[in-house]
Amino acid sequence: MKQLFQHAAITEGITVRVAVNFLPEQSQPEAGKWFWVYHIRIENGSDERVQLITRHWRITDSRGGVNLVDGEGVVGEMPVLAPGDSHDYVSGCPLGTPHGSMEGFYTFHRADGTPLEVRIPYFPLAAPATAD
């Protein structure tokens, strides 16, 4: 199945694309738990090799609560992307409200070791309305 990427941001030739889907089978609205899965594709359209070193996420719920998540790599990997390469991964996000958003940035290192902060586009987390 071909994934439809709904959101994208480009920083110095590096494109970050995001597709997000609500997972009702992983959610428990009656217990105040909603869950989304997101697919990220990072494309190196620059003319230099880069390596993803860290990630920074800002996850906001509909009550205004903010959770900042910082860590090394993505899903246990620190991919190296040569010019023209891409890297895909899938992860998930639980939330205590049926709506929220995510955004952030990756820090890459160029071949000479200088850092490059690459924006992750803002994307909404929205559970479908359910009939009572």
Briefly characterize the structure.
The chain is 0% helix and 61% strand. By secondary structure, the protein is mainly β.
What's the CATH class, please? Mainly Beta
Proportion of residues in extended strands: over 45%
The dominant shape is elongated
Q: At CATH's second level, what is the architecture?
A: Sandwich
The radius of gyration is 16 Å
Binned, the helix content reads under 10%
What's the rounded overall pLDDT mean? 94
Secondary-structure-derived class: mainly beta
| Count of helical regions | 0
* Assigned CATH superfamily: ApaG domain
- pLDDT < 50 runs, ≥5 residues: none
> What order do the SSEs take from the amino end to the carboxyl end, as H and E?
EEEEEEEEE
Largest sheet: 5 strands, antiparallel
| Spatial gap, N to C terminus | 32 Å
Please count the beta strands (DSSP E, at least 2 residues each). Answer: 9
Q: Remind me, CATH topology?
A: Immunoglobulin-like
Number of domains: 1
